[in-house]
Structure formats: structure tokens, C-alpha cells
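Loading example: each entry is read as two labelled lines plus one structure line.
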Amino acid sequence: MTDRSRELRIGSLARVEGEGALQVTIQDGRVERAELQIYEPPRFFEAFLRGRQHTEVADITSRICGICPVAYQTSAWLAIEDACGIQVGAGITALRRLLYCGEWISSHALHIYLLHIPDFLGYPDAITLSRDHRAVVERGLRLKKSGNAILEMVGGRAIHPVNPRVGGFHRAPTKSELAVLAEQLRHALDDALATVEFVGTLDFPGVDLEVELLAVHHPDHYAIESGRVRSSGGLDFSAAEFPDHVVEHQVSHSTALHATLDGGRYLTGPLARYSLNSAQLSPLARQAAAAAGLGPVCRNPFRSIVVRAVEVVYAIDEALRLIADYVRPDVAAEPVLPRAGVGHGVSEAPRGLLYHRYELDAEGLILSATIVPPTSQNQAAIEGDLLAVVEANRDLDDAALAHVCERTIRNYDPCISCATHFLDLTVHRL
Amino acid sequence: MIGTPTLAVWKFASCDGCQLTLLDCEDELLTLAGQVHIAHFLEASSAVLPGPYDVSLVEGSITTPGDVDRIRQVRASSKVLVTIGACATSGGIQALRNFADVQEFTSVVYASPPYIESLATSTPISAHVPVDFELRGCPIDKHQLLEVISAFLVGRKPDIPDTSVCTECKRRGLTCVTVASNTPCLGPVTHAGCGALCPAVGRGCYGCFGPMTGANVPAMIGRLHECGMTEGAIDKVLATFNVAAPGFRLPLVQR
């Protein structure tokens, strides 16, 4: 390119959830800006949750995202139960973990096969891909369906599950009902292992992210539905301490609120989870990861597709274990009597750490709500990566550069619908 | 329709769950893709074809001035326009702002609220352009979605019954949660379509498919009182995912 100054705008990002745009400004041969712009209009969840009953919150927050509703339900009920001083029993916890495994399988399979693989193989979408590689897409759809089967059986519905509630479930499935899932999941495990093998052979540009990684950690198992928060820099804190470390603020170069961890950029999501907790994966998942070329830590955003595939193996393996060990709890839900107080909850949405905080009055009415979704937390890290990618590829023509940038963004699977904090506002500072 | 019909999917303010329902048709997706040309579906494809489109599916509600213009363009380029889900058919849960002060909402969500280009209301698609069919649900049901797409592709009326959740509950042979355990349930006034999912797990319907035609909401409110619900709780259960739907719209407590 001979132009030393140019602007590149991708108007509508495809194969991401929700709506966003990217603006890159190159001035005098220097990359001035790389902005991921979110034009998803605000939906004001934190505002209208005020005044709602503590028992309604999980149903309402699930509507923040149709792709990871269980994550929104989980962080919500953890925070409410924390405020009410309740800890549910092991049986209910296990059932919640099984439900969340369903969401991981379904959401990761969606991203791997329908949103992400087309980038690596040079197709605009999975449907076009299926004309040349039908078996590959069919495998992805089967995998996704197995995750949805868990969500439907345990949650009562795949999108916005109806069976979970604060305190547990409306109805705990019987052991034989869950056993029906096991056979489908055993087949899905073969598909998941084949997926890791397949994505392991894709071509990955050699880049490594320097940012701090943040994920939930649980002493007993690979963290999904509960735990403390840990970072690659050695932080270790409880959900209640999250606001002491993670602060959301506006930055002058962006229209979106950015979260910082003790003042710095950081990343949450599959790379963070894997890098902090890979030793806790099941032997089968660890074996698959090693065979696909992953070490104990992965900081290459392009390899996030391999990490997601490994997490699908783990989630299926874990779901099979949970089904085998399942004992139907005596009570489907513990009573959660309201009291005045504040509660915090963190869990691992497929896209990363999701934090909720609620303040309740004595009757259980919500006085204030704070929701920090993974996409808002990752926004600064994504933009940092984009800046480096544009810098390294600034000689490409606009179409090629746009393609590289879109691929970069899709590595993170940003869920823009979830980004409840994003502002629909454009600021130009040239 | 002559030649391969084209299908477009559009998104306004929403959670993506209804368009995800199309991708959740794991067994039917590739068959469907063989029969229609998916010409615009940003969540699924970076290939975008220009209109006009034979069938457009629209998810989400209208909440910004830009969306008002965009839905008109979508209408102008679509032969058939079908709205999918509670947001597109009634304004969704974000229509709670219709009964509140949106500036105050903004100040709660954003620490230092700058000007946000957001309307004071969240309105259904039909408030802005003519709509050929409205598919209910938060989220929609995938079997109903396939029925609607199939019907419009061959030019017939979709077979979507306009009855209540009670009819589906009875057909499944479920025990009525209200009769058996005095559990509050909106089944009698809620549009059918989910297959009575909530009563199947022993909970009352919370109305996510919106009001059925001619729903007798005053009688329902009486029954909810008998189940022990307070005025405030009844207000809230009606003021959720279809808060602005005419059948569920009630004088709401200012919150």
C-alpha cells in the first residue's frame, strides 16, 4: 500500500453474537487506533433488575444472552444465595455443574464449527463449508446437539432453561432419565476427540499474548460453576473481592467501557482457564491437548479453537462422570429465605469469567445489581491484540486487512449481546 | 416462488437466542440450507447477498433512532417479513423502560452517563412496519420456527395454533400445578408454543410466550390472588418478557 494514511471500517462483523464494528486508523504510517465498536443498543438490565424479587433474577438475567443463559443464571443464583447466606448441597451443585457442561459443549461446538472453522478453511460460513466437507459440519452439529440434550433434560429448555431456580431446581431428574443421555454423550466424546485432532492440524500464526490471564479456580476440579478467582500474575481472591481488583471505566479512545485488573489489561476465557487450570483437566482431555500440540499454557489466540475443543472433551467426560455418580437429591431446591445483604457470584461462561453482585433488602427485593460480562472484560485485550495485528499487517490491502482483523476478533468469540455495558456512541479523535 | 428462495435473518435489540434457535435445528439445518439460499445472516455467515429477500426473519425490538430507519429498509427489501420472539413481537423485557425514566436507567447502568443514542421506548417491529407473521416466545420454539419457514417458502399460512399453554399441558397429560398444589401459573392466558415446559417440571408458567388472543387477564389475576400472590408479585410476573404486549399491559407500580 502506498497510502500512508487511511481508515478502515468493517461495518458489520459477521459470525459473532450480537452486533459490532471495527474501526482502524492509520496515520502517517503509524497505527493510531484499532477500535472494536459495539453498536448493540443498551438494554438496561442492571437498572430494571432493581425492585425485582430475588427469586426472579436468574430467569431475567438469562435473557442477557441466548448463547450462554446458564452462565447468567449460575452467577446470579450464586450471588443471591451468597447474599441470603445459603450454600446448596453437593447433589444440587453436581446437577448445576452437569447443566453448565451442557452449555459449554453446545456453545463451544457452535463457535468451533459454525463461527470459527470457516475462517481457517477459507469459507464464509459452515453451510458453504458443508458442500465440500459435509461430514465435518455434521460432526459439529451432532456435538452441539449433545450439549443441548443435557440442557433440555436438566434445564427443561436449551435456550433460557426453565427448571433451574435459586436454591436448586424445580425438579431433579431421576437417575434413569439422566442415564438416557449417557449413550449420546459417549458418541459425542468420539466426535469431540476427533474435533481436537482436526483443529490441531489447522494452520496457526505464531503469536503470543502478553496480558495477564484471569479465571475461576476450584481446588477440586477444573473450574466451571464456582470457585475463587486467580490470575497468571499470582492474584487469588474471592468473588466478594472482585470489585477491589476489576474496575470498569471509560477510555478516551473507545466508546466502550473497559475493565482493568489492578489497572492493567487482562484476558478471561478459554486461554485463561486452560493456562491456569490445565493440570485439573481429565486424563483424556489432557492427552487430547498434548496430542494436538498444546503445552500446559496457551497464550496464542488463534489456538483458542484447540483449547475450546479440549474443553468440549473435558465437559463431555465430566458430564459422563456426573451422570454415573448421580444420586437424586432428596430435595430439588433448598429454601432461600431473603435477608438484607450483598452477595457476589462468579462462574466461567464459555467466553470467560462472569461476575454478578446484588444488594437485597430484607424482603428479597433487589436494591442494586452489577453484572460484569466476559466481553466487557476482554475488550481492552482484544483491542490490544488488534493493534498489534494491524501493525504487523499494515501493508495488506483493505480487504485482506479486514479479513485478518475479523479473524482476530473471532478468536475471542466476543459475545456482544452479553456486553450489557457497551455504549452506542461514536467518538472521532483524529 | 421461482428459483431458490432467499432467506434473511436480521437482529435488533435482543439476546440472539431466537436466531440461535435456527442454528439449534441441528438435524434440519443442512436440509433447510439445501432448499433456501441464506442470503443475509450475520451471526452465521460473512457472505451477504443484496436483497430483495423472499423471507426475512427479524429478531429484536426497536430501541434506537437508527433501528427505526433500518427496519424500514429491511421491510422494503423483504417480500415476507416474520418477527421471531418476544422482543420483536412485543418489545421484549427491555420494554420495561417504557414504564420508567430511561435517563434514570442510563445513570444506573453507566457511571458517568454521556449521551446515549437510545429511545425512551422499546417497541415491537409491528409498531414501525407491516409484519406478515409474528412468532411468539422468549425464546421461540424450533419446531414452530421450522413450520413458519416451511409454510412461507411454499406460500401457505403457518399452522401455529392460537391457544393457551393449558391446551398443551392437557395434551401432555400433565397434572395441573394450580389445581394440584395451588401453584400460580399463567398457563390459562399464555400463548401456546413451548409445549408446557414449566408445568412439566412442576413450576407455574411465567408467560414467556406472551398473551394468547382474548386472554382473560382479570380472571387470571383473581386466581393468582387465590394462590397467595400479592398485587406487587402479580404485577411483576406480568411485567417480564412481554411487558408491553397489549394483553399483559397493566398499570404498573413505578419502579
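Residues 419-430 of chain A have pLDDT under 50 and may be disordered.
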